[in-house]
User: Fold these one by one.
Assistant:
Number 1:
Amino acid sequence: MTATDPSLTALTQGWCALSLLHGRIESHIERALQAKHGLSAREYSLLDVLSRQHDGEGGHLQMKQVADAVVLSQSATTRLVTRLEDRGLLERYLCPTDRRGIYTNVTEAGLKLLTEARPTNDAALREALDEAAKKPELAPLVQVVETLTAPVPV
């Protein structure tokens, strides 16, 4: 396969369209969350992921799982957790059965902010998708996004 191979060009064009759609959505959500709630899109995602934890087997996520869920490196996730902890939105504590493990939970203040921010996030997502659907190169991707369901984490 060469750099001028038509199938590679089509693949590259598809990837560029997907990247463009993602960037537009993320930027739109970021602006809305920052303006109304002082949260970045990554901070919102982290609060959302951690708010779904529960006590019991498999209820708490390891930092690698959290990093994978918010699509960041482990070190970037740790820095993000620290920032939100400093703001009183998260708290860390030692695992009661394994002193090497550290759990991160959303505080009451974090849950309140997440609850307030969720409609903003959802509305911004809808707006971004509606705007992207007007672009012929993005419309097929928007249709796919609208039919997807999130995989259940294992």
Note: The first helix runs from residue 6 to 37.
Number 2:
Amino acid sequence: MSDSTIAPTSPVVLEAWFDLQCPDCFVALDDVRALRETYGDRLDVQLRHFPLAKHKHAYAAAQAAEEAVEQGKGWPYVEALLARTAELGDRGEPVLLEVATELGLDAEEFDTALIDGRHLLTVDADEAEGKAIKVTGTPTYVIDGERLDGGQSQEGLRQRIAETVDRLLKG
């Protein structure tokens, strides 16, 4: 997702590879929020899309998140959608439009974007890059060239990321 939490000139970039139908990614939001709170504008958290085949609506959710970026509410949309992963799995794409409406976004434009596929290339590019760097599950983080697989275990990930950010900020 091209919408990051701060200006792109941030000294440290954390890529968060998420599947927006993944319950583990919802849990990982606590770590992302804590890191953003701790580091503020010294850490640029960038969401990257890695929709997993086992999640039927993850690809559409990634496209919807890109539309939310276009409408100025990328991260709020992602956070609201991840809070409804089970509902997305049960009810599908109508949930994408409901979340958009709840956030005051143009749901009709969301629907059009999903139909015309205007964000397909962005999602496909993220997915291809993720495969190239051997992302296999979500959440996965990349910071300073190091890949941290939260899909295996999120235990200690926030601390490892914080240690890397501290090292990079000093260095």
Note: The helical segments are 23-39, 58-70, 74-82, 85-91, 94-102, 107-116, 120-132, 157-170.
